[in-house]
Backbone:
């Protein structure tokens, strides 16, 4: 039996004032402090964001440990610069207009894309799963397209924005899809077709470089992986590890289908967009659209369908127990969106939301 593919995770975090909860532009200082401690923090687009990247992992236990260590290290470095680290999809409070991080590339994006580039602090989570080549990455992407809305619903973590309820479990994903190269990718039949689409966007100035291909699943521009980018940054490390495990097992299942000569399900673009909207609106607690048949289904039932679909891969990974425990804990405690709403509705205080998010960022059930 072929060894399971390796997996890695990138998490983006928000830096806020510990007293007011407002986003603060201190990522350069926090990253400098991190370097002094041997911690590699990347500077994200907005100065109120930092990003962590795990090593390549072959086990979920190892991935979970490193995710926990990275969050703790990043939080410590933020604290030393009078900032609080939050795992949250968007700033929950009203923040002043923060400048973009001052790198040549980021400045050029800000100049070319106007107000799109001045929505501070949209924080996501990216999962990388190893594949042999770009052709396999692209074919696997087609198999993952129907499950992208479910991944979003599971990890939705941006229900409060600018001090009010948005009415969405993931408002970040709604804002993010305004970028011309973001959202669900088309179904591509070949690498040539994919490359032609990217070249078209480059020639029209819709993107400035290949790193701006922001589709929610894509062959990575940097690593020999398929990269899934749909998710809000999850509230807890267990949710991030759960997402990575589900994605990894789905990739494994897709590769087995490819080897068996099976085709990816045909999912119409309009149905997929509808599924995206439902996922962003209601998260894991409401109804979803099954993209394959276009019918409404409770999100939790759709999650059960995914778990049945990838069960052999989870068994091979030895992760079925972890997944079952993590899903059960998620249903009890709620994802980030439910945590935010519960905290906000109790007293209507943003401080309660920030406190809940800060605790969840470093909380661990294992």
Residues:
């Amino acid at each position: 039996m072929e060894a399971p593919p390796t997996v890695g995770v990138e998490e983006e975090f928000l830096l806020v004032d510990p007293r007011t909860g407002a986003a603060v532009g201190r990522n350069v200082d926090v990253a400098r402090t991190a370097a002094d401690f041997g911690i590699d923090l990347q500077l994200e687009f907005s100065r109120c964001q930092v990003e962590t990247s795990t090593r390549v992992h072959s086990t979920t236990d190892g991935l979970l440990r490193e995710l926990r260590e990275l969050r703790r290290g990043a939080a410590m470095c933020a604290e030393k610069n009078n900032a609080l680290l939050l795992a949250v999809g968007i700033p929950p409070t009203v923040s002043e207009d923060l400048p973009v991080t001052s790198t040549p590339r980021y400045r050029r994006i800000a100049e070319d894309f106007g107000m799109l580039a001045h929505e501070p602090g949209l924080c996501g989570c990216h999962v990388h799963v190893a594949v042999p080549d770009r052709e396999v990455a692209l074919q696997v992407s087609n198999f993952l397209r129907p499950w992208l809305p479910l991944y979003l619903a599971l990890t939705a973590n941006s229900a409060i924005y600018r001090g009010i309820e948005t009415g969405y479990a993931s408002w970040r994903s709604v804002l993010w899809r305004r970028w011309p190269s973001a959202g669900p990718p088309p179904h591509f039949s070949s690498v040539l077709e994919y490359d032609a689409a990217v070249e078209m966007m480059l020639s029209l100035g819709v993107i400035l470089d290949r790193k701006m291909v922001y589709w929610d699943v894509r062959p990575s521009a940097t690593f020999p992986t398929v990269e899934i980018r749909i998710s809000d940054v999850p509230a807890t490390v267990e949710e991030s590890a759960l997402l990575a495990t589900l994605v990894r097992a789905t990739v494994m299942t897709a590769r087995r289908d490819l080897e068996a000569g099976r085709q990816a399900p045909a999912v119409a673009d309009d149905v997929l967009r509808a599924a995206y909207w439902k996922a962003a609106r209601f998260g894991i607690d409401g109804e979803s659209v099954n993209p394959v048949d276009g019918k409404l289904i409770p999100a939790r039932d759709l999650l059960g369908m995914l778990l049945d679909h990838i069960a052999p891969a989870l068994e091979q990974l030895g992760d079925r127990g972890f997944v079952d425990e993590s899903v059960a804990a998620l249903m009890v405690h709620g994802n980030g969106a439910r945590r935010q709403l519960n905290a906000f509705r109790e007293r209507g205080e943003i401080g309660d939301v920030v406190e809940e998010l800060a605790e969840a960022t470093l909380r661990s059930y294992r």
Remarks:
- The mean pLDDT is 94.
- Residues 7-362 form a domain with the Creatine Kinase; Chain A, domain 2 fold (CATH 3.30.590.20).
- The first strand starts at residue 7 and ends at 16.
- The chain has one domain: 7-362.
